[in-house]
Design a protein that fits this description.
The complex is a heterodimer of chains A (374) and B (324). Chain A has two domains: 11-186, Transcription Elongation Factor S-II, Chain A (Up-down Bundle); 213-366, no CATH class. Helices cover 52% and strands 3% of the residues of chain A. Chain A has helices at 11-16, 23-33, 42-59, 61-86, 95-101, 117-127, 141-145, 165-186, 195-213, 225-231, 239-256, 275-290, 296-299, 303-310, 335-341, 358-367; strands spanning 108-109, 133-136, 155-157, 160-163. Chain A has a four-stranded antiparallel beta sheet. In chain A, α3 runs antiparallel to α4 and α3 (42-59) crosses α8 (165-186). Chain A is globular. In chain B, 46% of the residues lie in helices and 16% in strands. In chain B, α9 crosses α11 (239-264) and α10 (224-234) packs across α11 (239-264). In chain B, the strands form four sheets. A four-stranded antiparallel beta sheet of chain B has the order 2-1-3-9, with no helix packed on it. Classes of the chains: A mainly alpha (374), B alpha+beta (324). At the A-B interface, α6, α7 and β3 of A face α6 and α12 of B. The structure holds zinc ion (ZN). Zinc ion is lined by residues 103, 105, 107, 113, 115-116 of chain B.
Chain lengths: 374, 324
């Protein structure tokens, strides 16, 4: 039996988790959240991971996001150790042993998916890594859903996807994490014993948000009140307008700050790396969407595509620069429009009186006096 | 195609021609879990949130109301009349002949002829092949929609997929993403090359120019001999493109093919699980054709098999009228 917990929700882990965790499990949980790797007994690991998940439920969406990152690091590290113990890289390594470990993740050898050795080597020469494993495509969907992989970059054959060890482990990790996130959402606030851990996760979550927004040339402290309110997460009646209409246009125009953008401006005219969108603009929008109650994508997954549509990429899951202009890049609605469509968002301050559009509020502060003028 | 059906014709169709046998098995067995939508006036299916408990009830409604259009959801619900208790949805691909981006015939956008319909059919067959070969799916139903084809997949693995995964699968089967260059004989790159081989001979000078394909590359693509070599070379890999079209030509061409591929299938239908689709067996009143399940798609000819009786009687009646 392995000394690591790979999946806190596996049958094996669920048998071990205790109703009243020992004190030791609390300090182990704190260590894990802090990102320090230590050896714990298997029982303490299981209890600690469950405490983290319960605390995340208590901490709310940003806590869940933070816990997800904590768990991802933990699972990846545990997998590495487990592979070492199984003799990965040595001739004694047995893939069947590995498959046995990954409960619910039926891994087979690539050869057994009906692909010849020559083809496998060819894939290896293209991708740099020869696939050794195969799983049903259903099992890579969590990774696809979570934006970690694209089907069109994978090799499918008769229902199976061919994967290198690294890809297989990543698919497994995403599968486990997806279930953990669901579990955390269903495990809201049980008692005060996890309060302290919840606080840690909350602080970690806030740091993640700040890191995503700051240092990317956006200055969130200069945002107008309506955008600040949106970033903090809004309720169900306001979600679509606040996130998809207001925030999407605001963050994209604020970040890209296009000069002389006409009515038919396209993002591709001002930006030549799609990562400005996928790594700087979308994460801010997604995190705000997650902080809504209920989280926007939980019951409206298609809103992700709608956001891309508002950015001008058409109705797509994956924005690409070539598609920029397929739909209009919607401009930030005027204050008057925001007040009419979503009155609860408008919390006017002094500076609001000077402007008619939320973006002007930001640009004024950012580029004339309030922000760093360059 | 045949002009709009009158209320009288719709009544006759549902009373005399329609029978429960027109309903496909995959609909019958989940009938009461589907939301039904009716179009009473021709303005669209605005009468939604209906639950139909049985085939007999459906027949009663059709005969009594002779609706302009009948639709049922691709999703199954515990309470379809409230669209509540989602149990899963078919995976659907919609190829509408009137929206084909490139065609061999002379039809303009919005028009449909026999050749367009054949092209839509071939395209749907291609999609089905990828679903079978790459995704290992088996339960596929072809439906002639009245102006194109629906491919409806009911394998258990697809039912619970969300919108995002459906969009990803669509990208794959429609070949809507440029693959990394590779010489593999299977999987996505091979699939994309197959689409290229089919499309290349159809691309006109104007289309190529508009897509920014450089002059030299256009000349290669429009010369019969060179094109032949290109199409043959693509069977093995994409090396031939780089040789003949150079870097820019290859990139622009791949992008053009990707865009055309993406436009062949209506993405909104695949992605939106709240959709309702025309019910197989019902009448497409605008064009006076039957929407129907196609059992032998290879030999299916809509212009002989999907034409309701009243259309042929219309003509003889017309002659009769003219005579008196
Ligand atoms: Zn035509």
């Amino acid at each position: 039996m392995l000394a690591q917990v790979l999946n806190p929700l596996s049958q094996r882990a669920l048998r071990l988790v205790s109703d009243a965790p020992p004190r030791e499990a609390y300090s182990a949980a704190a260590e894990i959240i802090a990102g320090r790797w230590q050896r714990f007994s298997i029982r303490v690991q299981v209890d600690a991971l469950h405490l983290i998940m319960r605390a995340a439920g208590l901490a709310g969406e940003s806590g869940i996001r933070a816990a997800e990152e904590v768990l991802r690091r933990y699972i990846e590290r545990s997998l590495q150790e487990a592979l070492g113990e199984l003799g990965w890289g040595r001739s004694s390594f047995d893939p069947e042993l590995l498959a046995g470990l990954l409960e619910g993740f039926e891994l087979i050898r690539a050869e057994d998916a009906g692909v010849g050795g020559a083809e496998l080597r060819k894939i290896g020469s293209v991708t740099g890594e020869t696939p050794e494993f195969a799983v049903h495509w259903r099992l890579v969907m969590p990774a696809v859903r979570r934006g970690r992989m694209k089907l069109t970059s994978l090799f499918l054959r008769r229902g199976y996807v061919l994967l290198s060890l690294e890809q297989a482990m990543s698919c497994y990790t995403e599968l486990v994490l997806e279930r953990c996130v669901e579990f955390m959402r269903d495990t809201r606030g049980e008692g005060s014993d996890v309060e302290e851990l919840a606080g840690m996760l909350r602080r970690l979550g806030e740091r993640h948000v700040a890191a995503a927004v700051e240092g990317k040339s956006l200055k969130p402290e200069l945002f107008p009140p309506c955008v600040k309110a949106t970033l903090a997460g809004v309720g169900s009646g306001l979600r679509n307008y606040a996130i998809t209409v207001l925030l999407t246009s605001f963050i994209s125009y604020a970040r890209i700050a296009p000069r002389n953008a006409g009515r038919d401006a396209r993002i591709a005219d001002f930006v030549d790396d799609i990562r400005v969108v996928t790594q700087e603009i979308l994460p801010v929008i997604y995190q705000a969407a997650e902080r809504c109650s209920p989280p926007l994508f939980q019951d409206q997954p298609a809103e992700r595509m709608n956001i891309n549509y508002h950015l001008g990429f058409g109705l797509t899951a994956e924005p690409r620069l070539e598609d920029s202009g397929k739909s209009p890049w919607y401009f930030v609605p005027n204050c008057e429009k925001v007040r009419r469509e979503a009155p609860a968002l408008c919390r006017m301050d002094r500076d609001c009186r000077e402007v008619k559009n939320p973006l002007s509020y930001y640009f004024r502060k950012r580029y004339s006096g309030g922000g760093d003028v360059r | 195609m045949f002009g709009e059906a009158t209320l009288e014709e719709r009544r006759r169709f549902y009373a005399e021609e329609w029978s429960p046998a027109e309903l496909p098995e995959f609909i019958v067995k989940s009938l009461s879990m589907r939301e039904f939508g009716f179009d009473h006036s021709g303005a669209g299916p605005s009468d939604r949130y209906n639950r139909i408990a049985s085939v007999a009830q459906l027949q009663g409604v059709l005969v009594r109301l002779a609706p302009y259009g009948v639709y049922s959801s691709v999703s199954l619900y515990r309470t379809p009349e409230r669209r509540d208790g989602w149990l899963g949805a078919e995976l659907v691909f919609d190829v509408d002949a009137k929206d084909l981006p490139v065609r061999g015939c002379g039809c303009a956008k919005g028009e449909v002829c026999e050749l367009c319909l054949e092209e839509a059919k071939q395209h749907v067959l291609g999609i089905a092949e990828v679903l079978r070969e790459d995704f290992g799916l088996k339960e596929m139903h072809f439906v002639y929609s009245g102006r194109g084809y629906h491919l409806r997949v009911t394998d258990r693995e697809v039912l619970e997929l969300g919108s995002r995964e459906r969009a990803e699968i669509l990208d794959y089967v429609a070949a809507g993403v440029v693959p990394e260059l590779s010489e593999l004989s299977f999987g996505y790159p091979a699939h994309f090359r197959r689409r290229m081989r089919l499309l290349l001979p159809r691309l006109s000078e104007a289309v190529l120019r508009e897509a920014g394909v450089p002059k030299r590359a256009r000349e290669v693509l429009l010369s019969e001999g060179e094109l032949e070599e290109l199409v043959q070379g693509l069977e093995k890999g994409t090396g031939v493109l780089a040789r003949k079209l150079k870097k820019k030509g290859t990139e622009k061409l791949m992008e053009l093919v990707r865009r055309i591929n993406a436009e062949m299938v209506d993405a909104k239908v695949t992605v939106d699980v709240k959709r309702i689709l025309r019910l197989p067996g019902s009448l497409h009143s605008k064009v006076s054709m039957k929407c129907m399940l196609v059992r032998k798609i290879e030999s299916f000819d809509p212009l002989s098999q999907a034409v309701p009786k009243f259309v042929s009687e219309r003509e003889s009646k017309g002659i009769y009228k003219r005579e008196i």
